[in-house]
Amino acid sequence: KAGVTQTPRYLIKTRGQQVTLSCSPISGHRSVSWYQQTPGQGLQFLFEYFSETQRNKGNFPGRFSGRQFSNSRSEMNVSTLELGDSALYLCASSPNTYEQYFGPGTRLTVT
Amino acid sequence: DAKTTQPPSMDCAEGRAANLPCNHSTISGNEYVYWYRQIHSQGPQYIIHGLKNNETNEMASLIITEDRKSSTLILPHATLRDTAVYYCIVRVAGPSADGLTFGKGTHLIIQP
Questions:
Q1: CB of B30 within 8 Å of any CB in chain A?
Q2: Measured between alpha carbons, how far is A29 from A101 in angstroms, rounded to an integer?
Q3: Which residues of chain B make contact with A92, given a CB cutoff of 8 A?
Q4: A residues 14-73 near B, CB within 8 Å?
Q5: What is the pLDDT of residue A107?
Q6: Does pLDDT of B35 surpass 90?
């Protein structure tokens, strides 16, 4: 079974731009979560989607948004990028209520 | 307010068993113990989880004390590829408002 895939793997953007990241979960997984990971703050939860509905949301500003499609694929969008948004963005899918399976991440650099 | 305590780093010789301890003295009755690891620059990897019984899968074994206040993750025959940061997490099963929260974890270094 293929793992969680994320595209693109690396991205360089300029302050003020917006970015869209994509995540394809493991086949059959309906829950998709997004995380931001930085050396200073560690792993921080952004949001979780289940059956196209946002089920939980972390403490991030409204510039961070996401959605899930009927095939469980998910996208997250960050508008008006700031330097502090530079991070590894991780997507995780889950088949049930227990373990989460992470993708390789998208490394975003904002200059 | 950390729910788990792990040593910051450990060494283990290749081929030997790596035993990673975790203290979770305030664990609630409905909270599970989960272990994940993260190899440098990769996404975290789920390893194993348990409630109160010992668990084993193809990657590792999880030993939980009878009072559930601590646990040990055992990698039976460590290889160089097991060098990673290992995170012990306690949480209830199911979605939660804050997702997974990783502490500082244990940096396990497998020595050749």
A1: no
A2: 10
A3: 43-44, 100
A4: 31, 33, 35, 42-43, 45-46, 48, 50, 55-58
A5: 97
A6: yes
Taking CA atoms, B80 is separated from B13, B23, B26, B84, B99, in Å, by: 9, 26, 34, 9, 30
pLDDT at B95: 73
Query: What type of residue is B22?
Result: C
> Is a pLDDT exceeding 50 seen at residue A2?
yes
Can you say whether the dihedral through the CA atoms of B21, B91, A28, A103 is positive or negative? negative
Lowest average pLDDT, out of A55-59, A61-65, A83-87, goes to A55-59
- CB-CB neighbors (< 8 A) of B95 in chain A: 31, 48, 50, 55-56, 97
Residue-by-residue DSSP string for B8-37: SEEEEETTSPEEEEEE-TT--TTEEEEEEE
Average pLDDT of the residues in A32-49: 92
Nearest to B42 among A31, A100, A104 (CB): A104
State how far the Cα of A6 lies from the Cα of B50, in Å rounded to an integer: 29
